[in-house]
Amino acid sequence: MKTRPAPLPIRIAALYQFARFDDPASIKPGLSACMETAGVRGTLLLAREGINGTIAGSDESIDAVLAHVRTLPGCSNIEVKESRSNTMPFHRTKVRLKKEIVTMGQPDLDPLSGVGTYVDPQDWNALIADPDVIVIDTRNDYEVQIGTFEGAIDPETKSFGEFPDWFRAKRAEIEDTGRSPKIAMFCTGGIRCEKSTAFARSEGVKEVYHLKGGILNYLEHVPEQESLWRGECFVFDERVSVGHGLKLGDHSLCRACRRPLSREDMAHEHFVEGVSCHRCHGERSEEQRARYSERHRQATLAGARGQDHIGRRDDIETDD
C-alpha cells in the first residue's frame, strides 16, 4: 500500500474580498499584530473597497490570520486560494493602506454591485470555444508573455490603470463591425476581473463573464490533457510562475524590473543576475545598475550566512 507523501511545509494563501471598510486605518494595527504574532510573512493591502494579498506560513499560523480576516466587515465568506511550497516565498510581513486594493483608476466603480457572470473552471473551455465570445486577458503584458488561454486577446497594457481606455477603444472597434460584444475575461486570481467586468457592465455591455477564481483555480481543477491554457502563470511571490496542478514553473525573476525570465532570457547578453535583463537594460542608468549590483552582492552574502537581506525587494507588489 502506497503512503501519501507529507505535504510541503509552507502554506501559501492568496486572498481578496471586496467589502466596505469605512476606516481601513483602524483595521491595520490588529491585522498587523495578528500576522506578526502568528509568524506569517507576506503582504496584505487594505482600502475602503476591501482587502487583497498573499501570505505564507505554517498551517496553524495561516489559520490564525484567516480567522482574524474573517472577522472583518464583509469578509466572513472570503475565498482563499491555497498552494504549498518547500521554502518561504516572502521575507517580510506587511499590511499596507491603499486607495484601491487593485488599481484601476475608477474611484466610483463598485464591484459589489455589478460584476459579470461567474464561470466555473469546468465550464470555461466551452465558453471560450464559442466563436461569438471575445476572450480578454486582463493582466499586464509581462504576465501574458509567459502564458495565456488559446485565442485570448492581449491588451498589451503596462498596468491595470490602462485597461479602461483600451477597453473603450476595443469596444468601439468591435461595434464598428456590427457585432454586439459578448465578453469573457480572466486574470490570475479573479480580483482584476471583479473590476474589469464591473467596468464593462458600467459601460453598457450586457453579456460579460469571468473565470471564477482566475487562472490559478483553472490550473488546479482542470486536467492538463483537457486544458486550453498554454504556458505558465505568473504569480506575485518568489515562486514567480506555476503550471498545471499549481506545480512550480520554470521562470525566474529579474531583480531590477520584477519581470519573469525564461531560461532563454537568462542566456541573453544583457542579463546580469540581480542587475538587469534584456527588457530593462535600456531602461536603467549605470548608476542604477551599480546600485542593483551592490544590493545583489549583499543579498548573496546574507544568503551564505543563512540570513535574509533586509534591503532586498522580496515580494512582488500585486494588483491581482
Automatic annotation (TrEMBL):
Residues 129-227 form the Rhodanese domain. It comes from the Bacteria. Transmembrane segments: none annotated. CDD domains: RHOD_YceA. It holds the Pfam family Rhodanese. It is an enzyme of class 1 (oxidoreductase). It catalyses: uridine(34) in tRNA + AH2 + O2 = 5-hydroxyuridine(34) in tRNA + A + H2O. InterPro entries: Rhodanese-like_dom, Rhodanese-like_dom_sf, TrhO, TRHO_N. PROSITE patterns: RHODANESE_3. Residues 288-297, 306-320 have a biased composition (Basic and acidic residues). SMART domains: RHOD. Its EC number is 1.14.-.-. Keywords: Oxidoreductase, tRNA processing. Residues 288-320 are annotated as: Disordered. Belongs to the TrhO family. Catalyzes oxygen-dependent 5-hydroxyuridine (ho5U) modification at position 34 in tRNAs. This is tRNA uridine(34) hydroxylase.
